[in-house]
Design brief:
Two copies of one chain form a homodimer. Chain A has 137 residues and is α+β, with helices and mostly antiparallel strands. Chain A has one domain: Roll (Ubiquitin-like (UB roll)). Helix content of chain A is 17%, strand content 31%. At the A-B interface, helix 2, strand 1, strand 2, strand 5 and strand 7 of A face helix 2, strand 1, strand 2, strand 5 and strand 7 of B.
Chain lengths: 137, 137
């Protein structure tokens, strides 16, 4: 068991990036425990997050560093970064400004499966994305 | 915004599996909000989870279905399954028997980064894995 804890290694040595050089980061509200989103980090974005204490991810769709909130203002102040037993998933405890989700909800997990396997909204709309990101053309 | 919510689709139609046919599932304690682990599901394990209301994953290391707790007894009763805005991450709200982590902790996220970028234990040991899984040869 002691071996599995890897406590002799540094935090950055313990992180296992996948074959794309990415690691998933679960993002949780520090105070309420609500899970807000999951995003991906490469080493550069993780180092920037550790340095600035603001969540920074790797955008797989835009293929670039993504300082959370740089467009929307909805920043995440990072209090703690935890790592799982296998070293291949991170958990960020944050204070979220506004909503985390680009659709306008507080959490990206704003829909849940019903018994009949349709979906229902289970979260609060925080902003109108057209006001924040502009209208889609 | 309405388009992004995809509320006209069924839950299963909304899930986007990756190129390996897998989707990550974050697992959170239903009562306390503690994040316990992240695992991966394929369609079969997701359908089994929906059917049995017990968490079932796809083990990438063993390449087979993995009914959580089948070896350890540490089952997860599933209360709700949420899906994120992009449809590519799930969030399970569960009641966890014993510890979720094979190392013996309540959560797989039992280590956190310190200011000096070493790690410290931040969780409770629930069982001795040698008692549960046997000694490693």
């Amino acid at each position: 068991m002691g071996d599995n804890q890897d406590m002799g290694k540094s935090f950055l040595e313990t992180v296992k990036f996948d074959d794309r050089g990415l690691v998933p980061a679960i993002v949780q509200d520090q105070e309420t425990g609500k899970v807000l989103m999951m995003a991906w980090m490469n080493l550069e974005s993780l180092q920037m997050t550790l340095d600035k204490k603001r969540a920074c991810y790797w955008s797989r769709s835009r293929n670039k560093l993504w300082l959370k909130g740089e467009s929307s203002g909805n920043m995440q102040v990072v209090h703690d970064i935890l790592i799982d037993c296998d070293g291949d998933t991170l958990l960020l405890k944050v204070s979220q400004t506004g909503g985390a989700c680009h659709v306008g909800y507080h959490s990206c997990f704003y829909r849940k499966a019903t018994e009949a396997l349709s979906m229902e909204i289970c979260d609060t709309l925080m902003f109108n994305p057209e006001d924040v990101y502009g209208k889609k053309s």
